[in-house]
Amino acid sequence: MLKDQVVIVSGVGAGLGAKLAARAAAEGAKVVMAARSSEVMDQTAKEIAAAGGESVAVPCDVRKPEDVERVVSTAVERYGTVTGLVNSAYSHPGFTDLLETADKQLRRAMDVILFGALEMSRAAVPHMTNGGSIVNVGTMSTRRPLRGEAGYAVAKSALDMASKYMALELGEKNIRVNQAIMGWLDGPGVRFYLTMTAEQKGITEQDVYDEIASNIPVGRIPTDEACAGAILYLLSDYASEVTGATLDVNGGEFMPA
């Protein structure tokens, strides 16, 4: 699906980012991973190499232009070009109501989610000389408000609008820009939420899981690895005529009109 593509993935952590990088490599892409911590990236790179794929890990704080430039330069020096970019780096300001969330935390979330994505895009676009694809990762909490997600959703909402304008403005360069909006993702983040909620309510983690899953038509919380497939599609030539689109990836929990 991604043969001969060079894809940069920001925010490669233990959940969606790592699964996405591994799946992109399995589909033939040369993957450049970027994250503040190297531990998960290094392990993912080993798994990719063991499966016969190619990747490189570059420590990066997307808030720092010099780090972002190093990621893109590594991609070009190692593989000659950039054809795809996935902006999945995020910062969660905490599970508090919006007016109770510290401005410092809100600004950090905005710096990582919105301005980090813009910085990555600015650096990558000049190298997409034969066209390319940018996928911004969104959250269902911008569609369906969930208590405790306000600060995170506000930053992701800004990225949502940026995605549309980037699609409009970059179309003439044959660069597509789309958004994949994730719902519940059964991975490390949700597992932390299950533990936290179970302790607060005095119930089991399975009870919390079952309550969430009961509202999802497929009857389960979709996994990180399965949801990564939607991003692979948007990166690929199968989506060659798709830009400015929003793909909801949530097992049917939210169905846009």
Give the SSE map:
Blueprint: E1 6-10, H1 16-26, E2 30-35, H2 39-50, E3 54-59, H3 65-79, E4 84-87, H4 103-124, E5 132-139, H5 150-170, E6 175-182, H6 188-201, H7 205-213, H8 224-235, E7 246-249
Parallel strand pairs: 1-2, 1-4, 2-3, 4-5, 5-6, 6-7
Helix pairs in contact: 1-2, 1-8, 3-4, 4-5, 6-7
Question: Can you describe this structure?
Answer:
With 257 residues, this protein is of the alpha/beta class. The protein has eight helices and seven strands, in the order E-H-E-H-E-H-E-H-E-H-E-H-H-H-E. It has a seven-stranded parallel beta sheet, sandwiched between helices. Helix 1 packs parallel to helix 2 (39-50), helix 4 (103-124) packs parallel to helix 5 and helix 6 (188-201) packs across helix 7. The longest helix has 22 residues, at 103-124. The model has no long low-confidence stretch (mean pLDDT 96).
Discrete helix count: 8
Task: Note the gap between the termini.
Answer: 30 Å
- The coarse overall form would be globular
Structural class: alpha/beta
The mean pLDDT is: 96
Topology pattern, helix = H, strand = E: EHEHEHEHEHEHHHE
Strand order of the main beta sheet, please?
A: 3-2-1-4-5-6-7
- Biggest sheet character: 7 strands, parallel
Radius of gyration: 18 Å
Low-confidence stretches: none
The number of distinct β-strands equals: 7
State the share of residues found in helices, binned by percent: 40-55%
β-strand amount: 15-25%
What is the gist of this entry?
The protein is an alpha/beta fold and 257 residues long. Helices cover 45% and strands 16% of the residues. The chain has a seven-stranded parallel β-sheet, with helices on both faces.
